[in-house]
Design brief:
Layout: H1 2-18, H2 20-31, H3 43-53, H4 55-60, H5 69-86, H6 89-108, H7 110-114, H8 118-123, H9 132-135
Length: about 140
């Protein structure tokens, strides 16, 4: 279990390093004057509270890694790298959040993603700024 947790931590740090340009863009979107996304900085804290409030449900679900989800992680991570290189902000946001969801699925299993972690994972999508044409 410790080796799996250590690997997950290293992966999370690497994911943040790859997604750093997107995170800087998100920060700019959140803090610009008259932003539609002023609330978005609170989303991770709200998700953390949701997970804490469901801690008994989360603990009751056995962690059973789902290896086939690693293919999705690799796909979404590749698309994230391409989107970062091409500076496609909307694609960066989507692939980052899909990578996070697929990583949780791979690490924790289907029962966790369909069960107590489903709503918090969906709630994270409120952090992603909408593409300009869609917003307008």
């Amino acid at each position: 279990d410790r080796a799996l947790l250590a690997a997950a931590g290293v992966f999370a740090l690497c994911l943040l390093a790859v997604a750093w340009p997107m995170l800087l863009w998100w920060k700019w979107e959140y803090t610009k004057p008259e932003s539609y996304y002023g609330y978005a900085t609170f989303v991770p804290a709200i998700v953390g509270f949701m997970l804490w409030a469901r801690r008994k449900e989360l603990a009751a679900v056995p962690l059973k890694p789902f290896a086939p989800a690693l293919a999705l992680v690799a796909l979404f991570l590749t698309l994230l790298v391409v989107a970062v290189k091409q500076e496609m902000q909307a694609i960066m946001s989507g692939t980052f959040l899909l990578t996070v969801a697929a990583s949780v699925w791979a690490l924790c299993g289907t029962r966790m993603v369909r069960g107590p972690a489903a709503f918090p994972l969906l709630y994270l999508w409120l952090m992603a700024p909408l593409p300009g044409p869609l917003l307008n």
